[in-house]
Design a protein that fits this description.
Number of strands: 13
Strand order of the largest sheet: 3-2-1-4-5-6-7
Domain Glycosyl transferase family: 252-379
Distance between the termini: 23 Å
Keywords: Transferase
CATH architecture of the largest domain: 3-Layer(aba) Sandwich
Oligomer: single chain
Protein name: Glycosyltransferase involved in cell wall bisynthesis
Domain Glycosyltransferase subfamily 4-like N-terminal: 12-219
CATH class of the largest domain: Alpha Beta
Helix content: 25-40%
Number of helices: 12
Pfam family, one: Glyco_transf_4
Order of helices and strands: EHEEHHEEHEHEHEHEEHEHEEHHH
Length: 417
Amino acid sequence: MKIIIVNSYDNVGGAARAAYRLHKSLLSKGIDSNMIVQRKLSDDYTVQSFPTSLFQELLAKVKHILDQLPLRFYKNKTKILFSPSWLGFNNVVDRINSANPDIVHLHWICNGMFKVEDLARIKAPIVWTLHDNWAFTGGCHIMWDCEKYTGNCGTCPRLGSTKENDLSRDVFKRKEKTYKKMPNMVINGLSEWITNCARKSTLFRNHKIINIPNPIDTDLFYPFDKTLSRNLWRFPQDKKLVLFGAIEATSDINKGYQQLKNALDLLHNENVELVIFGSSEPKEKDFLKFKTHYLGHLNDDISLVSLYNSVDVVVLPSLQETLPQVAIEAMSCGTPVVAFGHTGLLDIIEHNVTGYLAKPFDNKELADGINWVLDENNHSGLSINSRNKIVNCFSSSYVTDKYIKLYEDMMANKIKQ
């Protein structure tokens, strides 16, 4: 069995980390897995970058900028990522087809990696794992409460558009035409929420849609001595530490930094310090109620393991999440998570069992959840339950076996709409 995993990057961002973890887990089970990326940032020989010439290498570095050019006509667009995926000029499909794989497993493929129409040129059966909404919308990655994808998009709120036949309608129609040429494509929603969204979408109404989560190595992400972990980070031993983190944690509006700040103002526990990773300390500091440790970007799992084990609670106040890696990683280390109870977070956190799910988007309830988890009477049980939840539902061996069974069924033509 020969599998090709496709993602824009190999180790930057949640989708990349999830795709790479699946790739490595497949290899550990004796599957011939290769990973193809647009920009390779690791030195792993099992990961291939598809640019094969100096021109293509230079183009790959700027394609995400070129892909955004059509958005210049939308002066009222929001800061949420929108990908037209109109740019060709690469050989990624040729590289995939020349390898003659049994299955091609797509993950996050934007930032100019694919032109929408090029997807139909892939010869092998396709699994497409949804890490956000882009595959079934007219271009937005985070749709929030918009349900125009159940029709045919247009008048896009992410573009600030007032016209039916706008860029989102154009991208939607291009996808519709392309997907009709791809009958052997299986759509994988990582969470029940995004799986249900895909089932309601116009674009995927004629495709098989399943639900298999991301895998995580629970032997790597495991509970570790808290005192030692805090010493490694030089954190105080006598404080309650609250962790918040993501790529561009304080600047990405979807990650809920403003909601977190509002909730922290309502905490009644004064013995708290905040830890933030994914963003560096700003030049002009926010006025926060508690002392804050800024860690910048973390790129290795060992640092994350020691960090999760050094804190008392992780807070994910996101406005939308498909299946957040931070929650799975933290809980695998026995650290409870507090979040708003919606979207993909519902698959991971069990209210009052592995953490706390606050009413979306009630900052007072978010603060109550943090206070509740920090209570010593609740914390130890939550830690044990959190670890058990991830081991039982998301461990690499368990989840990867599901993917292998999927690949085998697709190769045997057992997958039916």
